[in-house]
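Batch job 17 of 40 flagged for manual review because the log was empty.
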Amino acid sequence: MALNIEGLLDAVVSHAMASGHFERVNQHEPENAPGDGLTCAVWANRITPLRSSGLVTVTALVAFNVRIFSHMFDPPDAIDPTVIAAVDALCGAYSGDFTLGGLLRHVDLLGAHGQPLDVRAGYLQQDGTRYRVMDIALPCIVNDLWTEAP
C-alpha cells in the first residue's frame, strides 16, 4: 500500500475550505505574500513510522502545518478575533471529524504519539507585507501506509 499524501492533504484542505473563513486555501507554503483577506496554507511537515506498526504494515505519523494569515492592515482590534475564530473552526473540525472521513486512525489531539494538536501565534514579514499568523501543528496517525515485505 503506498502513501497517499495527496488524499490526506485534500482532506485537511477541505476542512479549511468548508469552514467559510478563508478567501483562499493553498496546498503549499506560499513563497509570495498571500494577498488580502484571510488565507490558509496547508503543507506536510514530516512523516514518521510509529512503533505501533504491525508485522505486515507500517503505521505512521503524518504531521501537517496549517498556517492562517491575516494582513496587519486590518483594524488592529479585529485581527486576532478574526484569526482566532478561524483557528477555532478548524480545531473544532479536527476534533469533530478526527478520522478525516475515515482516511486515518485519528488526529492525535492529545499527543499519544508525540506532539499534540498545537496552535502558535506570531508575525511574518513576506514581500514587504506584515502578517499576523497562527500555525496549527496537525498530527495525523495513519494505519497501514506501507506494506512490509522481505
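Reviewer: the log was empty due to a logging misconfiguration, but the result itself is present. The chain has two helices and six strands. Unflagging and moving on to job 18.
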